[in-house]
Design goal:
single chain; 379 residues; alpha/beta; Aspartate Aminotransferase, domain 2; Aspartate Aminotransferase, domain 1; 2 domains; 8-stranded mixed sheet; 4-stranded antiparallel sheet; 12 strands
Amino acid sequence: MKPNRIYLSPPDVGGAEIEFVLEAFQSNWVAPAGPNLDAFEEDFAQLVGSKHAVAVSSGTAALHLALRLAGVGPGDEVLCSSLTFVASAAPITYLGAKPVFIDSEERSWNMDPALACAVIERKAKAGKAPKALVLVHLYGQSADIAPIKACCDQHGVKLIEDAAEALGSTYGESSPGSFGLAGIHSFNGNKIITTGGGGMLVTDDAEFAKQARFLATQARDAAPHYQHSTIGYNYRLSNIAASIGLGQLTRLSGKVSRRRGHFKAYAEAFKGLPGVTMQPEAPWGQSTRWLTCLTIDPAVAGVTREQVRLALEAENIEARPVWKPMHLQPVFAGAEMHGGQVSERLFDQGLCLPSGAALADEDRARVIAVVLACFAAGR
């Protein structure tokens, strides 16, 4: 009989969420509108330090809206981190634009600022600056925002931050996602907080937020009948889902603390293993350690990332490779790519370990034991 399944990052919900959901049911607010939806937006905006927040059905929907309102359209170029989930890049193509992928830097695993700025400057000099840049904050670690923002501002490139994996992290004293024209967050079931699926667009621009909310509700004009002057989307978050989000926000700091605790325990257990390097924490802020990530150099370790992953799976433990870079994805074959060595190495050697806030200490010990045994057998 197999031991219980240990998942990578399952949802973690509790009593506070139930209370808010019950309140919504009892008041009959079971629609994509309602007091808990309004409160969720207000509380979230305050939490991340943005003036406005618009709750939508997914982080992907939020990014789609942000790019459209940034003026991205057919034939435009949009710079994007290559080492990320496909949802960071797919909305670029929804609008007929072309993604231009940028490699990572070693300090944070996020977009290399020097490389991104060199590409922007070269394209601007040629008379075709990118329309926008999607800056991903990966695995709970903020990218180095300041140099990228300065370059974007200088050349009129709209900065959109993908903070889907970084709620609760910091860049200096501020929240990633609050620096650009807009930031997006995800509430998928595996994220730091969840609404059972959902997302948030944040911005300091009141008109931008107003238009995002308008487009997210099918772009219905102000008329007594149903009238539409432009195409919108069915992207609004429900009041029920927002109720879950309100409860999750009350527990955010504890969730971050728990995930950082997992990372610390893994790092301590693996500090003597040859060829193992934990994902660094960049000097400009604190990571949430949404997922504990590490790399395994097979030339030094004597085992590969994949051997370790399969050993974990054999014990009913979910672990996954680091994101496969976008420039290696079949769907983006032929896309423009700058650099690639860093993100390719991280994909080849990178492993994500179970890191959920609800992960029990004894289950984490199971994960550690399997990894240590794998190294002992491999050497």
